[in-house]
Amino acid sequence: MYEMDKDELLEAAARLTPQWLAGFFDGEGWVSAYKANSSYQVTVGVGQADPRILSLVALRFGVGISERSTKGHIHYNLRLHGKMALPFLHFIKDHVICKRRQVEAAIKMAGEMRHTSGGSGGLTDSEIALRAELAETIRRANHEICTKANSQSGKESFR
Question: What pTM was estimated for this model as a whole?
Fold first, then answer.
């Protein structure tokens, strides 16, 4: 765990509600569906420059965080793959706003996962088709969010 005094730790832990985490995820998180070994997989993640909150989230869901340096800046990521993403997704699903379609599709896709090693071996044609359809839903929803953000970046925001 990273340096936090007791009061900061208690305050941050108390704020780790489904509503707060859903808002945090809407702003800093992502859902990714990708093809690996002839089948689609799903990854959910949250990135942040400050590792303290990510550390609390990682502790809550029993995962670790990764660190990388880009152009001299350190960035931290929490990533959940396949079925490992389900507890996190179910925790935020009723409160996420901007990425609701991605979260719903990721829950369906992760719930369909029977293999942790990837690949389509043993999957029926309908399971493969469902994963491809859910991956396309995630891709489209991600594209729409990026398109909206880019089109609104030049507009004055309400304050």
Answer: 0.81
Structural domain of residue 80, as residue ranges? Answer: 6-152
> What span, in angstroms and rounded, lies between the C-alpha atoms of 98 and 92?
12
C-alpha–C-alpha distance, residues 90 and 21, integer Å: 11
Strand partners, 70: 73
Q: Is residue 84 domain-resident?
A: yes
Question: Sign (positive/negative) of CA torsion 131, 38, 82, 125?
Answer: positive
Which residues, including other chains, have CB under 8 Å from residue 80's CB and lie 6 or more apart? Answer: 43, 44, 45, 61, 63, 88
Q: Pairing mode, if any, of strands 65-70 and 29-36?
A: unpaired
Q: What is the C-alpha to C-alpha distance for residues 64 and 150, in angstroms, rounded to an integer?
A: 32
* pLDDT tens figures, 45-54: 999 998 888 9
Structural contact between residues 39 and 131, judged by C-beta atoms closer than 8 angstroms: yes
- Of 67-76, 104-113, 120-129, the one with minimum mean pLDDT is 120-129
Q: Can you give the pLDDT at residue 145?
A: 73
Tell me how many domains the chain contains.
Answer: 1
CATH number of the domain residue 14 falls in: 3.10.28.10
